[in-house]
Automatic annotation (TrEMBL):
InterPro entries: ADH_Fe/GldA (IPR001670), ADH_Fe_C (IPR056798), ADH_Fe_CS (IPR018211), Alcohol_dehydrogenase_Fe (IPR039697), NADPH_BDH (IPR034802). This is Iron-containing alcohol dehydrogenase. It comes from Alkaliphilus flagellatus. Residues 9-176 form the Alcohol dehydrogenase iron-type/glycerol dehydrogenase GldA domain. Pfam families: ADH_Fe_C, Fe-ADH. Keywords: Oxidoreductase.
Length: 385
């Protein structure tokens, strides 16, 4: 019998001041995992540490997680945890910090783990030493709710999406005060990542009656509130709605999986270092156009939202939040035509082989993927692919 599952963290604590929940935990030691300097700079790392110390815990910090966390970083983090021996691992920061902490958790409990085994879906049984809490500072990846982690092989320029219900956090803490500090461009990129999660969950071949309402609600919230969160970062209602939308979309896609928006974004991110949410945002209209031939669910979205053309609405939303419509217009990294064409075949093959391709509503091929990349680079239509 083929059974399906719907799994999310046991507890989701949300609303302003949710960080205070940390003071109610029971335990001896806790390790905080974070990325760069923003959680320190805005005082959230100190606040989390203070709340844990209120609970009577000794606290260590593993920091320096890079924007695209590497295999080396997660192994280092696991080793640092092993020296401290925490019974709570608490990730605070953007999706990179949360993703990295999940895999550090594995290397803490099982130091001899081979990364290739994780890539192949062979995960050990966790919670032998610690439980896991995720506190997102961005409204985007939904790593606080999901069974996913994306880790980069810097040697081979490949991002690996690792998937196992074992790494679903025990508790997700959603405090909108954290994303309120995000600058506009990060608000835009992470917000469009939410849209990609929700859209792909809704049209996934593994979608269900459990995931569809969540995905649709997240799509509505992003269309409604992302422009406001982008232009008025201090609007706490818009921030809270986007933070909730991220989590709700995460509930959907962690149980339905994704599609080739993410497959292509993972691989172009590995090749050029383009921010994941930005890559998703640019690729999305072209892939929706491509997928429309195989599903009527985009029409259902249009009917539900009262819009006529979802492809044009996605493009309009991108422009509202400062995102270009083509890959060649990206300025955060250089994607020259020469370099793009040089890696195109390899990148297309790798994207086709990404696990997210399996649940895309339209069966694709490396050749189709190559044409989609070209459409997104030059700004041509994907209707004829």
């Amino acid at each position: 019998m083929l059974l399906k599952w719907f799994r999310v963290p046991k507890d989701i604590v949300f609303g302003e001041g949710a960080l205070e929940y940390l003071s109610t935990l029971k335990g001896r030691k806790a390790t905080l995992v974070t990325g760069g300097s923003s959680m320190k700079r805005f005082g959230f790392l100190d606040e989390a540490k203070k709340q844990l110390e209120k609970a009577g815990m000794e606290v260590s910090v593993v920091d320096g997680v890079e924007p695209n966390p590497s295999i080396e970083t997660v192994i280092r983090g696991g080793q640092e945890m092993a020296a401290f021996n925490p019974d709570w691992i608490i990730a605070i920061g953007g999706g990179s910090a949360l993703d990295a902490a999940k895999i550090m958790w594995i290397y803490y409990e099982y130091p001899e783990t081979k990364f290739e085994d994780l890539v192949n879906g062979k995960f050990p049984k966790l919670r032998t030493k610690a439980k896991f809490i995720a506190i997102p500072s961005t409204s985007g990846t939904a790593s606080e709710i999901t069974a996913f982690s994306v880790i980069t092989d810097t040697q081979n320029h490949i991002k690996y999406p690792l998937v196992s219900y074992e790494i679903t956090p025990d508790i997700a803490l959603l405090d909108p005060n954290l994303p309120a500090k995000m600058p506009p461009h990060i608000t835009a990129h992470t917000g469009m990542d939410v849209m990609a999660h929700a859209l792909e969950a809704y049209v996934s071949t593994n979608a269900s009656s459990y995931t569809d309402p969540l995905a649709l609600e997240a799509i509505k919230l992003v269309f409604k509130q992302l422009p406001t969160a982008y232009t008025d970062g201090n609007n706490i209602q818009a921030r809270e709605d986007m933070h909730n939308a991220s989590c709700i979309a995460g509930m959907a896609f962690t149980n339905s999986s994704l599609g080739i928006i993410h497959s292509l974004a993972h691989k172009i991110g590995g090749e050029f270092g383009i921010t994941h949410g930005l890559a998703n945002a640019i690729l999305m209209p072209y892939i929706v156009e491509y997928n429309q031939k195989s599903t009527d669910k985009f029409t259902k979205i249009e009917n539900s939202l009262g819009i006529k053309n979802i492809v044009e609405e996605l493009k309009a939303l991108n422009l509202k939040v400062g995102i270009p419509l083509t890959l060649k217009e990206v300025t955060e990294v250089e994607i020259t035509e020469e370099k793009f064409l040089e890696v195109l075949d390899r990148m297309s093959e790798n994207a086709f082989n990404d696990p997210c391709t399996l649940t895309n509503p339209r069966q694709s091929s490396p050749e189709d993927v190559k044409e989609i990349y070209k459409a997104a680079f030059y700004g041509t239509t994907a209707k004829n692919i």
